[in-house]
């Protein structure tokens, strides 16, 4: 089940986007969008693309001063959707992909698959192209979600998915959450 929620308060979405896109915000280069090869289900070498990352929570530990504002985002979506109950956060990482795509291209198909976690959530920081694709077990596209500032997408951490780089916009920025709970 894929759940989309578009009700992030505008002032909170604006503040988050503004801080993330400041020149002083710290990004780290990663040579692939998914942390390890074991999580890739179907990919070709050309589907492994670099990304800039900023880790907020790693293996349950807060590793960034950006946690407080990130926590406000999560609290906001929980208040708006009473179905979402978060018990534990394993990872929270911002991903920035630069304009590098071509129409119809997506990165390697993967699962997030964190042990003892069952929810993946994506929060789109800015309006952009660069859809997120969802696949069935035969790696056929079953759905896609367009990045929209303030949009949340919740799904099982075992759900096959892949991002894509923007073609028309300069950057696509999202927050990837790996959590234990209900949605």
Main beta sheet: strand number and arrangement? Answer: 8 strands, antiparallel
Second-tier CATH architecture: Sandwich
End-to-end gap: 9 Å
Q: So what's the CATH class?
A: Mainly Beta
Q: What would the CATH topology be?
A: Jelly Rolls
The structural domain count equals 1
Low-confidence runs of at least 5 consecutive residues: none
The proportion of strand residues reads 35-45%
By CATH's scheme, which homologous superfamily applies? Answer: q2cbj1_9rhob like domain
Structural class: mainly beta
How would you briefly describe this protein structure?
The protein is mainly β and 183 residues long. The protein has helices at 10-20, 67-80; strands spanning 3-5, 28-30, 40-42, 51-58, 61-62, 85-98, 109-110, 119-124, 132-135, 141-145, 152-156, 161-162, 171-182.
Describe this protein with a few key phrases.
183 residues, mainly beta, Jelly Rolls, three-stranded antiparallel β-sheet
Report on this structure.
With 183 residues, this protein is mainly β. The chain has a single domain (3-182), classed as Jelly Rolls. It is built from two helices and 13 strands. It has helices at 10-20, 67-80, and strands spanning 3-5, 28-30, 40-42, 51-58, 61-62, 85-98, 109-110, 119-124, 132-135, 141-145, 152-156, 161-162, 171-182. Strands 1, 2, 4, 5, 6, 8, 11 and 13 form an eight-stranded antiparallel β-sheet that branches. A three-stranded antiparallel β-sheet has the order 10-9-12, with no helix packed on it. Strands 3-7 form a two-stranded antiparallel ribbon. The protein is globular and about 35 Å long.
């Amino acid at each position: 089940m894929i759940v989309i929620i578009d009700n992030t308060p505008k002032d909170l979405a604006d503040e988050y986007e503004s801080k993330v896109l400041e020149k002083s915000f710290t990004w780290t280069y990663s040579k692939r969008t998914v942390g390890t090869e074991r999580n890739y289900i179907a990919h070709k070498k050309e589907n492994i693309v670099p990304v800039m990352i900023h880790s907020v929570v790693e293996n349950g530990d807060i590793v960034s001063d950006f946690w407080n504002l990130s926590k406000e985002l999560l609290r906001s979506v929980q208040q708006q959707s009473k179905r979402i109950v978060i018990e534990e956060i394993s990872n929270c990482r911002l991903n920035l992909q630069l304009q590098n795509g071509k129409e119809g291209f997506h990165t390697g198909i993967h699962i997030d698959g964190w042990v003892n976690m069952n929810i993946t959530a994506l929060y789109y920081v800015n309006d952009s192209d660069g859809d997120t694709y969802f696949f069935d077990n035969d790696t056929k596209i079953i759905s896609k979600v367009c990045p929209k500032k303030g949009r949340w997408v919740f799904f099982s951490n075992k759900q096959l998915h892949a991002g894509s780089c923007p073609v028309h916009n300069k950057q696509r920025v999202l927050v990837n959450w790996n959590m234990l709970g209900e949605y």
